[in-house]
Structures are given as structure tokens and as C-alpha cells.
Design brief:
Blueprint lengths: L1 E9 L4 E6 L5 E5 L12 E9 L2 E9 L1
Length: 63
């Protein structure tokens, strides 16, 4: 499991970005990959999968 901080999440549009604490890269997250609701600055853990346009965070939950 990876860990990071929610940099941005738009509830209306259903997507955002997580800043991965290990690589310091932004990872795309879609509402379909959430285990629970997240907001900006939440500390989260997640898995990374390859999507159509790059890597996506899935199984996202707060820690």
C-alpha cells in the first residue's frame, strides 16, 4: 500500500489528485476508486493501477 496526501478533490466532478509520499508524484484519483469520502489535506493509503491515461489511485481510504 502506498501513502500520500490529498492535494485536490472536486466532489462535484468526482476526481482529484493525491501526492504520493514516496515518489512525490501526483496520482489521479476518481470517485470510483474511493473506499470512503476524502477531502483536501487528508492522509490516505491507496493502491496504484495503470489506467488509460496513466496511473490511478484505487482502494483509497483515510489513515
Amino acid at each position: 500500500m502506498n501513502t500520500g496526501t490529498v492535494k485536490f478533490f472536486n466532489e462535484t466532478k468526482g476526481f482529484g489528485f493525491i501526492l504520493d509520499s514516496a515518489s512525490n508524484k501526483e496520482i489521479f484519483v476518481h470517485v470510483s476508486g474511493l473506499k470512503e469520502q476524502i477531502t483536501k489535506d487528508d492522509k490516505v493509503q491507496f493502491e496504484i493501477v495503470e489506467g488509460k491515461k496513466g496511473v490511478n489511485a484505487v482502494e483509497v481510504k483515510k489513515i
